[in-house]
Amino acid sequence: MLRRCLLLCALTLGLALPSWALDAPSGKVLVTFSGKISHKNQGELAALDAQLLDKLPWVEIRTSTPWYPGVSVFRGPRLQDVLQLVGAQGQTL
Fold first, then answer.
1. Cα-atom radius of gyration of the chain, to the nearest Å?
2. Is the CB of residue 34 less than 8 Å from the CB of residue 47?
3. Is-contact 50 76, C-beta < 8 A?
4. Burial 6-30 (b: 16+ CB within 10 A, else e)
5. Which tops the pLDDT comparison, 29 or 3?
6. Three-state DSSP class for 69?
7. Fewer CB within 10 A of the terminal residue: the chain, N end or C end?
8. What long-range pairs does 35-42 form, CB within 8 A, spacing at least 24?
């Protein structure tokens, strides 16, 4: 019985560990997160490069801005997905 329990715990932890791990950046770091985050890859920080951000789904927004004439197109991952990737917790950015 104890063996089965230990095996089940080991399997459960083994399946859960990948969700805790955040790959280390292999290129130039574009953004760094600190504070109440649970997925870290550089000490107490979560550092993301283009390759890590490219793994997330991207969206495209077309809008006009006061800084550029005409319609501007912005592409990238949703902030919500980036925050989930680093395991952000709390109420303030």
1. 18
2. no
3. no
4. eeeeeeeeeeeeeeeebeebeeeee
5. 29
6. coil
7. N
8. 35/88, 35/90, 36/88, 36/89, 36/90, 37/86, 37/87, 37/88, 37/89, 38/86, 38/87, 38/89, 39/85, 39/86, 39/87, 40/86
Please give the structure tokens belonging to residue 68: 């550029």
Q: Tens digit of pLDDT for each residue in 21-78? A: 799 999 999 999 999 999 999 999 999 999 999 999 999 999 999 999 999 999 999 9
Residue 10 has pLDDT above 90, yes or no: no
CB 25 within 8 A of CB 6: no
Are 57 and 81 contacting, i.e. CB atoms less than 8 angstroms apart?
yes
Please tell me the distance from the alpha carbon of residue 88 to that of residue 77, in angstroms, as a whole number.
Answer: 15
- Considering the entire predicted model, what is its pTM? 0.70
